[in-house]
Please model this.
Amino acid sequence: MTPLIVDNLLPAGYADDIEQDLTRTGFDWFYIKDVTNPNYGNNSGFVHPAYDYGKNPSVWFPYIKPFTYSIEQALGRKIEELYRIRVGFLYPSPNTNQFNTPHVDFLWPHLTACYYVSNSDGDTVIFDQHLSEVGSDINDRSLKLYTEKTQFTVKTSVTPVKNRLVVFNGLNFHASTKPKQHDTRLVITVNFK
Model:
């Protein structure tokens, strides 16, 4: 699947409301040592798990979920199964890495959508490499070894522009990038079938 990029996904007022909700004092953020994979441990940031399949959704889920209907409209098809909605907050870092650790969010077929809540310079990088290249014995160790030894090649890089959506095959390795010129990188990531 070629990544789909849609600008101005939502009406401007709705996009502004989402940004204001996520940056208000009462919105819950949780620090995690690694936003890509807990086994890597060097890509820290904050997340808000609005929805995680099989778990109780957050109190913010009813306010965040409606925008997924705009994803359906952009794709021209219904979301059959929702796996996760996670809000991510990355902050500037002196880390000189070009991007965070390449990863996949789930080990089964799915699509990944990134909705950019605000403008930032922390690109989403989508690579040519696919989970099928890891081999048949996929586990945390094999994934970590694969990411350590692989020279990843960039398929596309998407700059966070407020109200922009990118949808791509979730089995393609991808990575976030910490901003260097903006104070934050706010993204809502949706994984679905």
Remarks:
- The chain has a mean pLDDT of 91.
- The longest strand covers residues 82-90.
- The radius of gyration is 16 Å.
- The CA atoms of residues 17 and 117 lie 10 Å apart.
